[in-house]
Write a structure and sequence with these properties.
The chain has two domains: 154 residues, Alpha-Beta Complex (Quinone Oxidoreductase, Chain A, domain 1); 151 residues, 3-Layer(aba) Sandwich (Rossmann fold), CATH 3.40.50. The longest helix is centred in the middle third of the chain and has 14 residues. With 333 residues, it is an alpha/beta fold. It is built from nine helices and 15 strands. Helix 4 links the parallel strand 9 and strand 10. It binds NADP nicotinamide-adenine-dinucleotide phosphate. NADP nicotinamide-adenine-dinucleotide phosphate binds next to helix 2, helix 3 and helix 9. The site of NADP nicotinamide-adenine-dinucleotide phosphate (NAP) has 29 residues, from helix 2, helix 3 and helix 9.
């Protein structure tokens, strides 16, 4: 009988997740029943929200229980099948969990053609939840118009880099905020942002005054905290703030802080609105149809950052909060 290794949640983290918050366990593989498939997980999507799922906080998904296999989106190949819809060799994407293989009845698993993508990992980045987050967050919540000023935080990251490129493809003036000279160069020179602000080495408020002298129409917020407060001070009339994420706060526990400068929304008649990508999964085809021509025209791409080995999952997760990742963080199994 063959066996599978899986990473289970062993403790609720305090601050940055530690290796000891997880436990690697091995289990025997069960025989398949009718309708089931065995999937070999090839890549895991490493997402900032994982830190939230590890707490007891109520969110759009229940917490991962202690002892449970760590929740993760992933892609894999069907190894063994007793389900006609998923023949052996089919690539699938879904909530695989952090484990080498899983048994599934196919519910919640989407088939995709890996050979049609530049890399199978694109099913987790631009053509997966990351790209849908960028597209629907900007289009549905940000309601962008050509010529408007768009500011994007975590602009070199997975979601942020897609938002920057989509904003440019839509004819906006785009200012990206990222940590460090290399990432800022990437945002400006490769993604095509009109300007990039290095929040680790620059005064963000001052730089926003310089690059957005007339203010900001749309702010795509991936980080919260001080950067959100700095943008709140520069809103144009009827500005829209897209609350996508607040990574600067995810490790703060009960110390999470909200925006200080929110009263400026009143004078600007502005709006701040959160959204969760799972509400848009049924519209994935619409986003992919809109993004594909930009990809074909070389206006939209996706940088991947791949860490090898499931045992390095905790380190891969930490990379998101230290900014060590450069592109969509994946773990290859
Ligand atoms: N609402 C939704 O449905 C949804 C779906 C997916 C993702 N999200 C959110 O989108 C955001 C980006 O996710 P992603 O998957 O694309 O990750 P990512 O941007 O690829 O990686 C996270 C980045 O956040 C930046 N960061 C970390 N700590 C920071 C801090 N204290 N202040 C400022 N920046 C910080 C780092 O970039 P630097 O090196 O530039 O600091 C890091 O590379 C996250 O907040 C995530 O929770 C929301």
């Amino acid at each position: 009988m063959s066996s599978t290794r899986a990473l289970h949640l062993a403790a609720r983290p305090e601050g940055l997740p530690k290796d000891s918050d997880f436990e690697l366990r091995t289990r025997d593989d069960a025989a398949l029943e009718d309708g089931q498939v065995r999937i070999a997980v090839r890549y895991l999507s490493i997402d900032p929200a994982m830190r939230v799922w590890m707490t007891e906080a109520k969110s759009y998904w229940p917490p991962v229980a202690l002892g449970e296999v760590m929740r993760s989106a992933g892609i894999g190949e069907v190894l063994e099948s007793r389900n006609d819809k998923f023949p052996v060799g089919t690539w699938v994407s879904g909530m695989t969990g952090v484990q080498e293989t899983l048994v599934s009845d196919g519910k919640g698993m989407q088939r995709f053609d890996a050979s049609a993508l530049p890399h199978p990992g694109w099913a987790l980045s631009l053509f997966g939840a990351t790209g849908l987050t960028a597209y629907f967050g900007l289009i549905d919540i940000g309601k962008p118009k050509p010529g408007e000023v768009l500011v994007v935080s975590a602009a070199a990251g997975a979601v942020g880099s897609a938002v920057v490129q989509i904003g440019k493809a839509l004819g906006m003036t785009v200012v990206g905020i990222a940590g460090g000279a290399d990432k800022c160069r990437f945002v400006h020179e490769e993604l095509g942002a009109d300007a990039a602000i290095d929040y680790k080495n620059e005064d963000v408020s001052k730089a926003l005054r310089q690059h957005c002298p007339d203010g900001v129409d749309v702010y795509f917020d991936n980080v919260g905290g001080d950067i959100l407060d700095a943008v709140l001070k520069r809103l144009k009339m009827h500005a829209r703030i897209v609350l996508c994420g607040g990574i600067s706060q995810y490790n703060a526990g009960s110390g999470t802080r909200g925006p200080v400068n929110y009263l400026s929304l009143i004078a600007a008649r502005g709006r701040m609105e959160g959204f969760v990508v799972i509400d848009y999964l049924h519209r994935a085809g619409e986003a992919i149809a809109a993004m594909t021509p930009w990809v074909q025209a070389g206006k939209l791409g996706s940088r991947l950052d791949v860490v090898d080995g499931m045992e390095h999952f905790p380190e891969a997760l930490r990379r998101l909060y230290t900014g060590a990742n450069f592109g969509k963080q994946l773990v290859k199994l």
